[in-house]
Amino acid sequence: MGTFKIEGGHQLKGSIQPQGAKNEALQILCAVLLTPNLVTINNIPDIVDVNKLISLLGKLGVKIEKLAHGSYTFQADNLDLDYLESDEFKVDGRGLRGSIMIVGPLLARFGKGYIPKPGGDKIGRRRLDTHFEGLINLGAKFRYSKEEQFYGVEADRLKGAYMLLEEASVTGTANIVMAAVLAEGKTTIYNAACEPYLQQLCKMLNRMGAKISGVGSNMLIIDGVETLAGTDHTMLPDMIEIGSWIGLAAMTKSELTITNVSWDDLGLIPNVFRKLGITVERQGDNIHIPAHTDGYEIQSFIDGSILTISDAPWPGFTPDLLSIILVVATQANGSVLIHQKMFESRLFFVDKLIDMGAKIILCDPHRATVIGHDFKSTLKATTMTSPDIRAGVSLLIAALSAKGTSTIQNIEQIDRGYERIDERLRAIGARIERVD
Protein backbone atom coordinates (compact mmCIF):
# COMPACT_ATOMS: atom_id res chain seq x y z
CA MET A 1 0.00 0.00 0.00
CA GLY A 2 1.57 3.28 -1.14
CA THR A 3 2.00 6.32 1.07
CA PHE A 4 2.47 10.07 0.63
CA LYS A 5 4.64 11.99 3.07
CA ILE A 6 3.75 15.67 2.98
CA GLU A 7 5.56 18.54 4.65
CA GLY A 8 2.88 21.18 4.95
CA GLY A 9 2.77 24.88 5.63
CA HIS A 10 4.60 26.03 2.48
CA GLN A 11 3.32 28.44 -0.16
CA LEU A 12 3.21 27.16 -3.74
CA LYS A 13 3.67 29.16 -6.92
CA GLY A 14 3.41 28.65 -10.65
CA SER A 15 1.00 27.13 -13.13
CA ILE A 16 -0.62 23.74 -13.44
CA GLN A 17 -2.60 22.23 -16.30
CA PRO A 18 -5.54 19.94 -15.55
CA GLN A 19 -5.54 16.43 -16.95
CA GLY A 20 -8.21 15.13 -19.29
CA ALA A 21 -11.56 14.48 -17.66
CA LYS A 22 -11.80 11.08 -15.98
CA ASN A 23 -15.61 10.94 -16.06
CA GLU A 24 -15.68 11.80 -19.75
CA ALA A 25 -12.98 9.26 -20.55
CA LEU A 26 -14.95 6.35 -19.10
CA GLN A 27 -17.91 7.16 -21.38
CA ILE A 28 -15.92 7.95 -24.52
CA LEU A 29 -13.79 4.81 -24.29
CA CYS A 30 -16.89 2.62 -24.09
CA ALA A 31 -18.30 4.33 -27.19
CA VAL A 32 -15.49 2.91 -29.38
CA LEU A 33 -17.38 -0.40 -29.20
CA LEU A 34 -20.16 1.06 -31.36
CA THR A 35 -18.20 0.98 -34.61
CA PRO A 36 -15.75 -1.35 -36.39
CA ASN A 37 -13.94 1.73 -37.68
CA LEU A 38 -10.92 3.52 -36.25
CA VAL A 39 -11.52 6.01 -33.42
CA THR A 40 -8.77 8.36 -32.24
CA ILE A 41 -9.05 9.86 -28.76
CA ASN A 42 -6.84 12.61 -27.35
CA ASN A 43 -6.23 14.02 -23.86
CA ILE A 44 -6.89 10.68 -22.13
CA PRO A 45 -5.77 10.91 -18.49
CA ASP A 46 -3.09 8.41 -17.45
CA ILE A 47 -4.85 7.25 -14.29
CA VAL A 48 -5.63 3.85 -12.79
CA ASP A 49 -9.38 3.73 -13.51
CA VAL A 50 -8.99 4.77 -17.15
CA ASN A 51 -6.06 2.41 -17.72
CA LYS A 52 -8.12 -0.46 -16.27
CA LEU A 53 -10.87 0.24 -18.81
CA ILE A 54 -8.37 0.42 -21.68
CA SER A 55 -6.97 -2.94 -20.55
CA LEU A 56 -10.47 -4.43 -20.40
CA LEU A 57 -11.19 -3.22 -23.95
CA GLY A 58 -7.96 -4.83 -25.09
CA LYS A 59 -8.94 -8.18 -23.56
CA LEU A 60 -12.30 -7.86 -25.33
CA GLY A 61 -10.42 -7.72 -28.61
CA VAL A 62 -10.26 -3.99 -29.34
CA LYS A 63 -7.10 -3.11 -31.27
CA ILE A 64 -5.36 -0.34 -29.31
CA GLU A 65 -2.37 1.75 -30.37
CA LYS A 66 -0.75 4.45 -28.26
CA LEU A 67 0.24 7.41 -30.47
CA ALA A 68 1.61 9.72 -27.77
CA HIS A 69 0.99 10.57 -24.14
CA GLY A 70 -2.80 10.76 -23.80
CA SER A 71 -3.51 9.88 -27.45
CA TYR A 72 -4.68 6.45 -28.61
CA THR A 73 -6.44 4.79 -31.52
CA PHE A 74 -9.08 2.12 -30.96
CA GLN A 75 -10.63 -0.30 -33.46
CA ALA A 76 -13.34 -2.73 -32.40
CA ASP A 77 -13.61 -4.71 -35.64
CA ASN A 78 -12.97 -8.22 -34.33
CA LEU A 79 -14.17 -8.64 -30.76
CA ASP A 80 -13.95 -11.76 -28.61
CA LEU A 81 -17.45 -11.81 -27.14
CA ASP A 82 -16.71 -15.06 -25.29
CA TYR A 83 -14.52 -12.99 -22.94
CA LEU A 84 -17.75 -11.46 -21.55
CA GLU A 85 -18.72 -14.78 -19.98
CA SER A 86 -15.24 -15.74 -18.76
CA ASP A 87 -14.06 -15.86 -15.16
CA GLU A 88 -11.38 -13.33 -16.06
CA PHE A 89 -13.99 -10.79 -17.15
CA LYS A 90 -15.93 -11.30 -13.92
CA VAL A 91 -12.82 -10.17 -12.06
CA ASP A 92 -11.81 -7.38 -14.45
CA GLY A 93 -15.29 -5.86 -14.73
CA ARG A 94 -15.86 -5.93 -11.00
CA GLY A 95 -12.78 -3.79 -10.38
CA LEU A 96 -14.10 -0.70 -12.14
CA ARG A 97 -17.48 0.97 -11.84
CA GLY A 98 -17.17 2.61 -15.26
CA SER A 99 -17.19 -0.81 -16.91
CA ILE A 100 -21.01 -0.77 -16.67
CA MET A 101 -21.01 1.51 -19.74
CA ILE A 102 -19.78 -1.23 -22.08
CA VAL A 103 -23.22 -2.87 -21.78
CA GLY A 104 -25.19 -0.38 -23.90
CA PRO A 105 -22.80 -0.36 -26.89
CA LEU A 106 -22.39 -4.15 -26.89
CA LEU A 107 -26.14 -4.71 -26.64
CA ALA A 108 -26.85 -2.31 -29.51
CA ARG A 109 -24.20 -3.69 -31.85
CA PHE A 110 -24.06 -7.39 -30.95
CA GLY A 111 -27.38 -8.09 -29.23
CA LYS A 112 -25.93 -8.88 -25.82
CA GLY A 113 -24.12 -7.19 -22.99
CA TYR A 114 -22.90 -8.61 -19.70
CA ILE A 115 -21.27 -7.15 -16.61
CA PRO A 116 -20.45 -8.29 -13.07
CA LYS A 117 -21.67 -6.04 -10.28
CA PRO A 118 -19.08 -3.26 -10.45
CA GLY A 119 -17.08 -1.95 -7.50
CA GLY A 120 -15.58 1.52 -7.14
CA ASP A 121 -15.57 4.16 -4.42
CA LYS A 122 -17.14 3.40 -1.08
CA ILE A 123 -19.26 6.54 -1.05
CA GLY A 124 -22.72 5.05 -0.62
CA ARG A 125 -25.20 3.15 -2.74
CA ARG A 126 -25.12 3.82 -6.47
CA ARG A 127 -27.92 1.87 -8.07
CA LEU A 128 -27.79 0.42 -11.58
CA ASP A 129 -31.58 0.47 -12.02
CA THR A 130 -31.52 3.47 -14.39
CA HIS A 131 -29.12 1.68 -16.74
CA PHE A 132 -31.09 -1.54 -17.00
CA GLU A 133 -34.59 -0.02 -16.93
CA GLY A 134 -33.59 2.14 -19.89
CA LEU A 135 -32.23 -0.83 -21.83
CA ILE A 136 -35.36 -2.85 -21.02
CA ASN A 137 -37.45 0.05 -22.38
CA LEU A 138 -35.53 -0.35 -25.64
CA GLY A 139 -36.60 -4.01 -25.80
CA ALA A 140 -33.80 -5.85 -24.02
CA LYS A 141 -34.41 -8.92 -21.88
CA PHE A 142 -32.75 -8.67 -18.48
CA ARG A 143 -31.30 -11.44 -16.36
CA TYR A 144 -29.35 -11.46 -13.11
CA SER A 145 -27.48 -14.18 -11.26
CA LYS A 146 -27.65 -13.40 -7.57
CA GLU A 147 -25.06 -16.04 -6.74
CA GLU A 148 -22.45 -14.63 -9.14
CA GLN A 149 -23.76 -11.03 -8.98
CA PHE A 150 -23.70 -11.03 -12.78
CA TYR A 151 -26.00 -8.95 -14.99
CA GLY A 152 -26.98 -9.60 -18.58
CA VAL A 153 -29.16 -7.98 -21.27
CA GLU A 154 -30.00 -9.46 -24.66
CA ALA A 155 -32.05 -8.42 -27.69
CA ASP A 156 -32.31 -9.30 -31.37
CA ARG A 157 -32.84 -5.63 -32.30
CA LEU A 158 -33.48 -2.70 -30.01
CA LYS A 159 -36.46 -0.47 -30.75
CA GLY A 160 -36.76 3.20 -29.89
CA ALA A 161 -39.03 4.22 -27.02
CA TYR A 162 -40.06 7.14 -24.84
CA MET A 163 -38.69 7.03 -21.30
CA LEU A 164 -38.74 9.29 -18.27
CA LEU A 165 -35.72 8.52 -16.13
CA GLU A 166 -36.29 8.22 -12.39
CA GLU A 167 -32.92 9.88 -11.78
CA ALA A 168 -30.72 11.98 -14.03
CA SER A 169 -27.88 9.47 -13.84
CA VAL A 170 -24.86 10.50 -15.92
CA THR A 171 -23.57 6.99 -16.57
CA GLY A 172 -27.12 5.68 -16.91
CA THR A 173 -27.95 8.30 -19.53
CA ALA A 174 -24.68 7.57 -21.36
CA ASN A 175 -25.43 3.84 -21.46
CA ILE A 176 -28.95 4.37 -22.78
CA VAL A 177 -27.79 6.92 -25.38
CA MET A 178 -25.12 4.55 -26.69
CA ALA A 179 -27.70 1.78 -27.03
CA ALA A 180 -30.35 4.02 -28.60
CA VAL A 181 -28.16 5.40 -31.40
CA LEU A 182 -28.27 1.99 -33.13
CA ALA A 183 -31.88 1.16 -32.16
CA GLU A 184 -34.69 1.07 -34.70
CA GLY A 185 -36.80 4.23 -34.68
CA LYS A 186 -36.93 7.23 -32.33
CA THR A 187 -35.94 7.27 -28.66
CA THR A 188 -36.83 10.12 -26.31
CA ILE A 189 -34.98 10.33 -22.99
CA TYR A 190 -36.56 12.82 -20.56
CA ASN A 191 -34.81 13.80 -17.32
CA ALA A 192 -31.56 12.92 -19.07
CA ALA A 193 -28.29 14.00 -17.49
CA CYS A 194 -26.84 17.03 -19.27
CA GLU A 195 -23.31 17.32 -17.82
CA PRO A 196 -20.64 18.67 -20.21
CA TYR A 197 -19.10 15.19 -20.37
CA LEU A 198 -22.42 13.70 -21.53
CA GLN A 199 -22.65 16.51 -24.07
CA GLN A 200 -19.17 15.56 -25.28
CA LEU A 201 -20.31 11.97 -25.77
CA CYS A 202 -23.36 13.06 -27.78
CA LYS A 203 -21.27 15.39 -29.96
CA MET A 204 -18.80 12.58 -30.63
CA LEU A 205 -21.59 10.16 -31.54
CA ASN A 206 -23.13 12.74 -33.90
CA ARG A 207 -19.76 13.09 -35.66
CA MET A 208 -19.82 9.30 -36.06
CA GLY A 209 -23.20 9.53 -37.80
CA ALA A 210 -25.69 9.35 -34.92
CA LYS A 211 -28.73 11.62 -34.92
CA ILE A 212 -29.06 13.09 -31.41
CA SER A 213 -30.85 16.37 -30.79
CA GLY A 214 -31.42 18.30 -27.57
CA VAL A 215 -27.75 17.99 -26.56
CA GLY A 216 -27.19 20.03 -23.40
CA SER A 217 -30.83 19.80 -22.30
CA ASN A 218 -32.59 17.22 -20.15
CA MET A 219 -34.55 15.88 -23.14
CA LEU A 220 -32.58 13.96 -25.72
CA ILE A 221 -34.22 12.79 -28.94
CA ILE A 222 -32.37 10.07 -30.84
CA ASP A 223 -33.22 8.79 -34.31
CA GLY A 224 -31.56 5.40 -34.64
CA VAL A 225 -29.14 4.68 -37.49
CA GLU A 226 -27.85 1.43 -38.96
CA THR A 227 -24.11 1.96 -38.46
CA LEU A 228 -21.61 4.45 -37.07
CA ALA A 229 -18.28 5.56 -38.54
CA GLY A 230 -14.98 6.37 -36.87
CA THR A 231 -13.97 9.82 -35.63
CA ASP A 232 -11.40 11.86 -33.74
CA HIS A 233 -12.22 13.20 -30.27
CA THR A 234 -10.42 15.37 -27.72
CA MET A 235 -11.57 15.31 -24.12
CA LEU A 236 -12.29 18.30 -21.91
CA PRO A 237 -10.06 19.16 -18.95
CA ASP A 238 -11.17 17.59 -15.67
CA MET A 239 -13.40 20.05 -13.83
CA ILE A 240 -12.91 18.20 -10.53
CA GLU A 241 -9.16 18.62 -10.78
CA ILE A 242 -9.64 22.30 -11.62
CA GLY A 243 -11.73 22.76 -8.47
CA SER A 244 -9.13 20.85 -6.46
CA TRP A 245 -6.38 23.27 -7.54
CA ILE A 246 -8.55 26.30 -6.70
CA GLY A 247 -9.00 24.89 -3.22
CA LEU A 248 -5.29 24.06 -2.92
CA ALA A 249 -4.29 27.63 -3.80
CA ALA A 250 -6.64 29.11 -1.19
CA MET A 251 -5.65 26.73 1.62
CA THR A 252 -1.91 27.26 1.09
CA LYS A 253 -2.21 31.04 0.47
CA SER A 254 -0.55 30.45 -2.89
CA GLU A 255 -0.66 32.29 -6.19
CA LEU A 256 -1.51 29.73 -8.85
CA THR A 257 -2.58 29.78 -12.48
CA ILE A 258 -4.65 26.88 -13.77
CA THR A 259 -4.27 26.71 -17.54
CA ASN A 260 -6.63 25.63 -20.34
CA VAL A 261 -9.67 25.11 -18.13
CA SER A 262 -12.46 25.37 -20.75
CA TRP A 263 -14.24 28.10 -18.76
CA ASP A 264 -17.55 27.71 -20.56
CA ASP A 265 -17.85 24.13 -19.26
CA LEU A 266 -17.20 24.90 -15.58
CA GLY A 267 -20.79 25.90 -14.71
CA LEU A 268 -21.19 27.01 -11.09
CA ILE A 269 -17.73 25.93 -9.93
CA PRO A 270 -16.01 29.36 -9.99
CA ASN A 271 -18.96 31.09 -8.30
CA VAL A 272 -19.24 28.52 -5.51
CA PHE A 273 -15.59 29.09 -4.59
CA ARG A 274 -16.23 32.84 -4.75
CA LYS A 275 -18.99 32.37 -2.14
CA LEU A 276 -16.26 31.11 0.19
CA GLY A 277 -14.45 34.42 -0.37
CA ILE A 278 -11.88 33.05 -2.82
CA THR A 279 -10.81 35.32 -5.67
CA VAL A 280 -11.18 33.43 -8.95
CA GLU A 281 -9.98 35.51 -11.89
CA ARG A 282 -10.53 34.69 -15.54
CA GLN A 283 -7.51 35.26 -17.78
CA GLY A 284 -8.44 34.07 -21.26
CA ASP A 285 -9.03 30.34 -20.82
CA ASN A 286 -6.96 30.26 -17.61
CA ILE A 287 -7.91 30.69 -13.95
CA HIS A 288 -5.68 32.87 -11.79
CA ILE A 289 -5.86 32.57 -8.00
CA PRO A 290 -3.93 35.33 -6.18
CA ALA A 291 -2.26 34.57 -2.87
CA HIS A 292 -4.90 34.95 -0.13
CA THR A 293 -2.44 36.28 2.43
CA ASP A 294 -5.27 37.96 4.39
CA GLY A 295 -7.49 34.89 4.23
CA TYR A 296 -10.97 34.62 2.74
CA GLU A 297 -14.44 35.23 4.16
CA ILE A 298 -17.54 33.11 3.61
CA GLN A 299 -20.57 35.00 2.33
CA SER A 300 -23.98 34.74 3.98
CA PHE A 301 -27.34 34.50 2.24
CA ILE A 302 -28.92 37.89 1.59
CA ASP A 303 -31.09 37.56 4.71
CA GLY A 304 -27.99 37.01 6.83
CA SER A 305 -28.50 33.28 7.38
CA ILE A 306 -25.64 30.77 7.18
CA LEU A 307 -24.51 29.81 3.70
CA THR A 308 -25.46 26.30 2.53
CA ILE A 309 -23.57 24.63 -0.31
CA SER A 310 -25.19 21.50 -1.70
CA ASP A 311 -24.81 19.25 -4.71
CA ALA A 312 -27.32 18.67 -7.50
CA PRO A 313 -27.43 17.21 -11.01
CA TRP A 314 -25.94 19.50 -13.66
CA PRO A 315 -26.21 22.45 -14.00
CA GLY A 316 -26.15 22.25 -10.20
CA PHE A 317 -22.90 21.97 -8.26
CA THR A 318 -21.07 18.68 -8.74
CA PRO A 319 -20.98 16.32 -5.72
CA ASP A 320 -17.36 15.45 -6.52
CA LEU A 321 -16.20 18.87 -5.27
CA LEU A 322 -18.11 19.07 -1.99
CA SER A 323 -15.25 17.44 -0.06
CA ILE A 324 -12.86 20.08 -1.46
CA ILE A 325 -15.27 22.86 -0.48
CA LEU A 326 -15.51 21.40 3.02
CA VAL A 327 -11.73 21.35 3.49
CA VAL A 328 -11.32 24.90 2.14
CA ALA A 329 -14.01 26.12 4.56
CA THR A 330 -11.99 24.90 7.56
CA GLN A 331 -9.66 27.92 7.21
CA ALA A 332 -12.22 30.49 6.07
CA ASN A 333 -13.58 33.36 8.12
CA GLY A 334 -17.16 32.27 8.80
CA SER A 335 -19.31 29.17 8.78
CA VAL A 336 -21.01 27.06 6.13
CA LEU A 337 -23.36 24.09 6.01
CA ILE A 338 -22.26 21.42 3.52
CA HIS A 339 -25.19 19.29 2.31
CA GLN A 340 -24.18 16.17 0.40
CA LYS A 341 -27.53 15.05 -1.02
CA MET A 342 -26.52 12.39 -3.51
CA PHE A 343 -24.25 10.01 -1.52
CA GLU A 344 -24.74 9.09 2.11
CA SER A 345 -21.17 8.12 3.06
CA ARG A 346 -19.08 10.81 1.40
CA LEU A 347 -18.73 13.03 4.47
CA PHE A 348 -17.38 10.34 6.76
CA PHE A 349 -13.78 11.45 6.13
CA VAL A 350 -14.36 14.56 8.30
CA ASP A 351 -13.19 12.68 11.41
CA LYS A 352 -9.67 12.88 9.96
CA LEU A 353 -10.00 16.66 9.58
CA ILE A 354 -11.29 16.93 13.13
CA ASP A 355 -8.18 15.03 14.26
CA MET A 356 -6.16 17.75 12.50
CA GLY A 357 -7.95 20.41 14.52
CA ALA A 358 -10.77 21.43 12.17
CA LYS A 359 -14.03 22.60 13.70
CA ILE A 360 -16.66 20.46 12.01
CA ILE A 361 -19.99 19.16 13.27
CA LEU A 362 -21.16 16.09 11.36
CA CYS A 363 -24.92 16.53 11.65
CA ASP A 364 -25.84 13.28 9.87
CA PRO A 365 -24.52 11.21 6.93
CA HIS A 366 -25.49 14.00 4.52
CA ARG A 367 -24.72 17.27 6.34
CA ALA A 368 -21.76 18.87 8.06
CA THR A 369 -21.35 22.34 9.55
CA VAL A 370 -17.87 23.86 9.25
CA ILE A 371 -16.69 26.70 11.49
CA GLY A 372 -13.67 28.27 9.84
CA HIS A 373 -10.42 29.06 11.69
CA ASP A 374 -9.63 32.16 9.58
CA PHE A 375 -6.01 30.86 9.62
CA LYS A 376 -5.73 31.84 13.31
CA SER A 377 -5.15 28.16 14.08
CA THR A 378 -3.48 26.00 11.44
CA LEU A 379 -4.38 22.37 10.90
CA LYS A 380 -2.01 19.90 12.56
CA ALA A 381 -0.12 17.17 10.74
CA THR A 382 -1.32 13.61 11.25
CA THR A 383 -1.36 10.11 9.76
CA MET A 384 -4.48 9.18 7.78
CA THR A 385 -5.84 6.82 5.14
CA SER A 386 -7.50 7.84 1.88
CA PRO A 387 -11.04 6.35 1.80
CA ASP A 388 -11.86 7.33 -1.81
CA ILE A 389 -10.57 9.47 -4.67
CA ARG A 390 -12.14 12.82 -3.77
CA ALA A 391 -11.76 12.56 -0.01
CA GLY A 392 -8.15 11.48 -0.54
CA VAL A 393 -7.30 14.64 -2.48
CA SER A 394 -9.17 16.75 0.08
CA LEU A 395 -6.98 15.25 2.82
CA LEU A 396 -3.92 15.89 0.66
CA ILE A 397 -4.87 19.58 0.40
CA ALA A 398 -5.40 19.70 4.16
CA ALA A 399 -1.95 18.14 4.70
CA LEU A 400 -0.26 20.66 2.39
CA SER A 401 -1.71 23.49 4.48
CA ALA A 402 -1.04 21.85 7.86
CA LYS A 403 1.90 22.50 10.15
CA GLY A 404 4.31 19.56 10.23
CA THR A 405 4.66 16.34 8.24
CA SER A 406 1.56 14.28 7.45
CA THR A 407 1.28 10.77 6.10
CA ILE A 408 -1.53 9.62 3.80
CA GLN A 409 -1.85 5.88 3.25
CA ASN A 410 -3.82 3.97 0.59
CA ILE A 411 -2.85 6.54 -2.03
CA GLU A 412 -3.85 4.04 -4.73
CA GLN A 413 -7.30 5.60 -4.28
CA ILE A 414 -5.92 9.01 -5.26
CA ASP A 415 -4.04 7.52 -8.23
CA ARG A 416 -7.37 6.22 -9.55
CA GLY A 417 -8.42 9.78 -10.36
CA TYR A 418 -5.33 12.04 -10.49
CA GLU A 419 -2.44 11.71 -12.92
CA ARG A 420 1.08 11.84 -11.41
CA ILE A 421 -0.25 14.14 -8.71
CA ASP A 422 2.91 14.13 -6.61
CA GLU A 423 5.16 15.05 -9.57
CA ARG A 424 2.87 17.84 -10.68
CA LEU A 425 2.57 19.27 -7.18
CA ARG A 426 6.34 19.19 -6.67
CA ALA A 427 6.66 21.25 -9.86
CA ILE A 428 4.82 24.12 -8.15
CA GLY A 429 6.73 23.84 -4.89
CA ALA A 430 4.89 21.21 -2.86
CA ARG A 431 6.99 19.06 -0.53
CA ILE A 432 5.48 15.67 -1.15
CA GLU A 433 7.17 12.30 -1.40
CA ARG A 434 5.77 8.97 -2.56
CA VAL A 435 6.86 6.01 -0.42
CA ASP A 436 6.04 2.48 -1.63
UniProtKB/TrEMBL annotation:
Keywords from the UniProt entry: Cell cycle, Cell division, Cell shape, Cell wall biogenesis/degradation, Cytoplasm, Peptidoglycan synthesis, Transferase
Residue span, Enolpyruvate transferase domain: 7-425
Residues the record lists as binding phosphoenolpyruvate: 22-23
InterPro entries for this protein: Enolpyruvate_Tfrase_dom, Enolpyruvate_Tfrase_sf, MurA_subfamily, RNA3'P_cycl/enolpyr_Trfase_a/b, UDP_GlcNAc_COvinyl_MurA
Catalytic activity: phosphoenolpyruvate + UDP-N-acetyl-alpha-D-glucosamine = UDP-N-acetyl-3-O-(1-carboxyvinyl)-alpha-D-glucosamine + phosphate
Residues the record lists as binding UDP-N-acetyl-alpha-D-glucosamine: 97, 320, 342
GO molecular function, one term: UDP-N-acetylglucosamine 1-carboxyvinyltransferase activity
Transmembrane annotation, as ranges: none
Keyword Cell cycle recorded: yes
Subcellular location: Cytoplasm
Superkingdom to which the source organism belongs: Bacteria
Pathway: Cell wall biogenesis; peptidoglycan biosynthesis
EC number: 2.5.1.7
Keyword Cell inner membrane attributed: no
Active-site residues annotated for this sequence: 121 (proton donor)
Cited Pfam families: EPSP_synthase
The protein's role, per its UniProt record: Cell wall formation. Adds enolpyruvyl to UDP-N-acetylglucosamine.
Family stated for the protein in its record: Belongs to the EPSP synthase family. MurA subfamily.
Name used for this protein in its record: UDP-N-acetylglucosamine 1-carboxyvinyltransferase
Native species: Flavivirga spongiicola
